[in-house]
Input
Amino acid sequence: MSKKVISIVLSLAMVVAVLCVGFGAITASADTVTYYFLAPENFLLAEGSGDKVGYYYWQPSEVAPWPGAEMTKAPEVGERVYKVECGDMDETGTIIFNAFVDAGNPADPALAAVAHQTVNINTEGYMKGESTLYDTLDNFYDMIYVLSNAEEDKAVNEFSGAITTKGEWFSINATDDNYYKDYLDETGNYWDKVGGKTTIVSKGDTTSSDTPSDKTYHKGDKVTVTFSFGGVDPAGTLTSFVDFNKDLLKYEGKEKLVTTTGTVLVNDDLKAEDGMESRLGIGCVFDPTGEEHTFAGDKVAMFAFTFTALDDFNVEDLGIQRVTTEITTIKDDDVVDVFVNDDATKVVDEAYTEVKVDVKCNHEQENPSSSVAPSSSSEAEKPSSSSEPEKPSSSEAEKPSSTVESKTSSATSSKATPDASKASSSSKAASNASGSNGTAIQTAGTFAVISLVVILMAAAAVVLYTRKKTEE
Output
């Protein structure tokens, strides 16, 4: 067996393992919770810190010397959103988010100017009268902290000289009345305290808002997400994921749109225990002999995934985004990396993969036209045509011209060499978090399934190789 086939089989094993288990499927304490933070742009200006954001707590013990530890980017929630997993409010009673800068004591004036931080945030919820928005709130688990831009909510820290700012907690769930994006000011950085928003009584309260709905599309509408791949010749392997907001979309099924050699897998089991509750996995091991040329040119539509909307929505609420982790090609009997993304939670905007979103609105009286997701390069508008967008056949290389690219789609139209260090995370995306405090746990059964699939597919790769040699 040549080293090319050995490499491709090993790649296959890794692809299948990743698809079946997902990311973040690790054993964790039941007392671990997640907090999110919307970092204003001035938190990301410190030289040497870049786009890093820190968190600090000292109960029951210090997480790390000030300014603490680095937070994790959470593009699945939104732009400039960061998250941290830590002990619950019984373990971590106070937390501070900061620009990950230590201004010193006494403070260096230059560092103090960029060493922004929040006030000491009590994580133990709100009692009556403690918040201007909420009546009461039991805890802030899976919620996002957004700063205020009001002068009365700012102060200078007596130790660091940094600007210390107060904020408010909001939901990351687009269907909640206290969804954080609905309360941002026109800059998108701060909580708009004077924007005329209705008061939130409490999280989960069913009291309706007086604010009219600003949702373009409706509960029950059909959503089609098309995944495309191209610009690689010959194609070796592909591992990619399509994320969606499970609170707004019910997955209905998939359609393969192109014929390929080798093996193509889609994991759409949507198992919470595997960390794949709102993530579709796409894993491809093409012809091990290196003769898969289908994707040599422009992007080819590979799959159409269909969903039904569970509530009224705008396209950006759907959380549709793709995370590509690896693309390889076959060169001189070797499997060669074309693109590698080591951070499997990062929204990667690069030249080889793409998602497009189409919406078919069924509410003819309210919206008499077929609703197609707005282009990322133009303002949202409804097309004048009342016909349903066509689905591409398996022989077509791309979506029909009536398809309009969504705000969450990659706008790349030509091949460019991607730079992983400059990967974009600016796609608008709603939360795909379930809101629960538990973390997915790997099971022995999952690994049994992985082993079986790896064996079967490795055998398929060898058969392809043997058949090719026989023909020669």
